[in-house]
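Support request, please re-run this one:
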Amino acid sequence: MSVAAPTTPAAADRPAAPGARAATKRLRAHLPVALAALALALYVTSGLWSNPYRHAVAANPGDQAFFEWVLAYGVHLLHHGGDPFFTDLLNAPDGVNLAANTSITVYAILFAPLTMLAGPQVTFVTILTLNLAASGFVWYLFLLRWVTRNRVAAAVGGLFAGFAPGFISHANGHLNWTSGWIAPLVLWQLLRMRDQRHWVRGGLILGVLLGVSFSIAAEGLFFTALAGGVFVIAWALAGPNRAEARRLLPRFLGALGLTAVVAGALLAYPLYMHFAGPQTFKGTGFNQRHFAEDLFAFFAFADRSVAAGLGLRSDLAPNPTEETSFFGVPLVVLIIGSLIVLWRRADEARRATLRALIVVAVVFFVMALGPRLRVLDMETSIPLPYALLQRLPLFDSALPLRFSLVLAGVFAVVLALITERLLDSSYRKALIAALALALVPIFPLPLLYRERAAEPKFISNGAWKDYTTDGGVISALPFGVNVAADGQRWQAYTMARGGKEFRIPDGYFLGPDELGAEGKGRIGALPRATDWLFLRAALYGYIADLDNWDRASARADFQRWGVTAVFLPDGEITGSEGPLFRQAVEVTATDLLGEPERVDDALVWRIRPGVDPIDR
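Re-run finished. Output below.
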């Protein structure tokens, strides 16, 4: 029955069209997998949902603060306009190139109503949950369309891909890398280009998809494009496929050309900003040799897995957010054994596909190992192929170990194929036992969380407005950075309300290591004496013996930043591994700036231009 207008009884009783019945039946058939994916995602993020305003991912509260800031910036864009890919709200007065950061612009705009209604804290957990659920479900649909007609086999592969250890690891704060649904959508459209009748439409759709995906997960899109290219080339060069490849090549290249035109038009400005805009940089602020996969990490168990919960964890990753492989010995053995079984029973055409999959797996396995081989957390002197790639554009901005995330997709395809092959055979019980042995140990545990400082009333009540103008510069102490991001969070929560805003110096972002020039990437702003003074107090409890040089440096730094006030809330200061030394920060600020004002639940120090900090 229509909800737009009343219908006659005859119309109400009219049976649905055959096509509508078929579509409804298909949706109902997919519903159990969709619900299973959503239930798993809610289970993984349950600790954050229990109190989204006070709970942060334990392993990476700084990245969560950054993404909350980006989500609040989406509200800023809707209320005040501005450049989606550059802002001076952070790192005043120099600004931040958001195109060169993981700015998830599409999410920020799309979810802006929720951010205004419930705050970026709720929006963050919502997107994280939907990312995980959508990744498992879209991979299931992809496998059901292109790999197997068996729903159980597709579900096994799809849910594995969406909740593989590497993606659960990245759920510790990364809204870009948990957007695993992008890969199967892009690959789906790439494979559809074999249909020569609709090559124009295919090129257009893929171009739009790339344009949208770039602003959600640019690095993941780069990996997907590489994997798709390696697979297509390996498949086309196989003997049984060469004739078909030659026939498909002209229109396939035409479709890709059209894709390039559409994506290029949509991404012209973002790409310009990324590579040549202000505050851009080369590489990242991370050491690629350090962020390379350990050879034995592929056989280890991730920190948030059943096996690790039973004491079988290992410490072979740079941090808990970068456990990008960690498949465990049983799963690796199952995948290798499955490939052997599938190869022996395959015809030449199927072997060509399997060969292409194996090539993708080997290429990305080798690239994930980085420039030099690492074994049991020790870097050897053995050079690897990535040493030749690490200075090339795009590769210089990638962290090598993340290439192993592609293996999750390859493993998902193999799991779907072997499940389909053996599910209805006499080996069914053996298959179920093998799947249980391989998948139960890596089944995810809920993300660990920790308490973080509550938003001070000084910010939530708007008392800060008495200490600066709209768009003026104030800052919490210590100044915002990845290991102490509270100040950036307070600014984000203010932006999310859609009213008056303030800017902050410093912040957590990626920027150049040379002022006024395109330098190498670094985390945060170029360090200055004053921000290090407060950060050192917060991190180590160190109270410096201040002199006239310190006060002169502070005067110059405050003048450059345009800061009119700094404040210190009464509660704890959230650090990357727990609360920081608040008392040391207060003592340092009072010694440098004099006695503060008490405003609500914060201590506030006014900064007057041209006045020595202690002359108050």
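The longest helix spans residues 199-237. The two ends are 74 Å apart (CA to CA).
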